[in-house]
Every structure is written in C-alpha cells, then in structure tokens.
Fold this sequence. Notes:
CATH class of the domain at 5-29 and 82-119 and 169-217: Alpha Beta
Number of strands: 8
Helix content: 40-55%
CATH topology of the domain at 5-29 and 82-119 and 169-217: Rossmann fold
CATH superfamily of the domain at 5-29 and 82-119 and 169-217: P-loop containing nucleotide triphosphate hydrolases
CATH architecture of the domain at 5-29 and 82-119 and 169-217: 3-Layer(aba) Sandwich
Radius of gyration: 17 Å
Number of helices: 9
Largest sheet: 5 strands, parallel
Strand content: 5-15%
Distance between the termini: 10 Å
Bound molecules: adenosine-5'-diphosphate, zinc ion
Structural class: alpha/beta
Low-confidence stretches: none
Mean pLDDT: 94
Order of helices and strands: EHEHHHEHEHEEEHHEH
Shape: globular
Amino acid sequence: MEKPRIILLGAPGSGKGTRAVALCEVLGIPQIATGDLFRKNLKEMTEIGKIAKGYIDRGELVPDEVTAAMLKDRLAQPDAKNGFVLDGFPRSVKQAEILDKLLAESGEKITSVIYIKVDDEEIVSRLTGRMICSKCQAPYHVRDHKPAKDGVCDKCGGELIVRDDDKPETIRKRLKVFHDVTFPLVEFYSARGLLAEIKSETSARGINADMKDLSKKLGFIA
Ligand code: ADP
Ligand code: ZN
C-alpha cells in the first residue's frame, strides 16, 4: 500500500484540525499543521516566530519563503517518512507548486486531497467559541466539541485558551484569504484527480468512525 500523504483543505473553522487529528490517529501518521508550527515558534520567540507574528495577527499569510523553510524541516523528520496529514499547507496554488518540488526531492508525491465543504454562516458560528489547548494545541469548541472538564484539555490537562487571531475582524480577513487564495486549490487538485470532498457535519458515529470510513474508501486501510 502506498504511504498516505494527505492534504486537508478547508476554511478556517471547517473542523479541519479536529479531522486531521482523528485521521492521524486512524492511520498512525503525524499531523503536520503549519499554524501549530507557527504558534510554537511564536511561543518560543524564535526568528521565524518574530517574522510571522504580524502576519498572523492580521490574518494574512506568512511569506512563502518562511513557511516553506519551516515545512521542509518538519517533513525531513523521520516520522514523516511513513506518510503525513498536512493541515494548513498548501494555502495557495504557489504553495502547492512549492510542495510538489519539495516532495519530488525525495521521490514522493501527494496521494489524496480531502476538501471539507462548509457554508460561510456556519464557519462564523464555529470560529466563535473555538478554543485550543495552550500546551498541546488540541482543538475544542464550546458547542461542538466540549472538553470533559471546562477549560481543561482532555489529552494533557493543559489550560484551554482562545487564539488571538480568532477575533471577529481577523476571522473575516482569514475567510477572505481563504476564498481568494486557498479555494482555487480545490480546482487545482480536482483537475489532477486527487480530490475527495467531505461534509463538515460529523455523523452520529463520531469523527473517528467517519475518518476510518474515509480511509477505507481512499484505500489507506483494509
Ligand atoms: P486556520 O486554519 O484556522 O486559519 P491555522 O492555524 O491553520 O488557522 O493558521 C493560523 C495562521 O498561521 C494563518 O492565518 C496564517 O497567518 C499562518 N499560516 C498557517 N499556515 C500557513 C501557510 N501555509 N502559509 C502562510 N501562512 C500560514
Ligand atoms: Zn492539551
């Protein structure tokens, strides 16, 4: 079986992060989320963090050179050799081309692109009420995905916080960037026959079961 090298596409608030986590659990491969990598760099005040901060606070994309260098480092780590779920990269056709080149250097290519379809109104209501763990970045939502104990991460006991860029004006900007710059990737990957579209609603059986079904359908597990 081919190693699963999967891209998850979806607007901010589409539930991309939660699906990425579930998919990685099902397939036993790492989640590579450029947003999480940036937040880690911000927290540790690295050089990358310093450059990225202004862009992230404004809801804009961090320049490609910075993002691609950070991604290249992450992809070079041994765990990524078994496959990966990319969450938050690529975000533009330009970045998709950069990714192709990066993977080609080690004879790899993307095996599937999963697009999570969701309406704009639904997105705004989801982004309001979103929280992440300040320690391990696990995503939560006051309505859709509550932690067992208020304000505390189920996985690591860390404190749950609202991200700075989940403020209304930044949310609007990020949605615009998604429509203008990221959405064309749906057509880009569809033309290559790589696109699978899924709904943003979770079935009664739960996200893990949904991601297991999807993995079977895509041929990653028997
Ligand atoms: P969301 O998917 O909810 O918008 P992310 O956590 O994926 O949030 O990203 C947060 C921010 O990090 C983005 O608004 C952007 O500023 C920056 N970022 C993440 N991934 C990329 C990328 N591939 N290219 C440029 N900037 C990025
Ligand atoms: Zn946690």
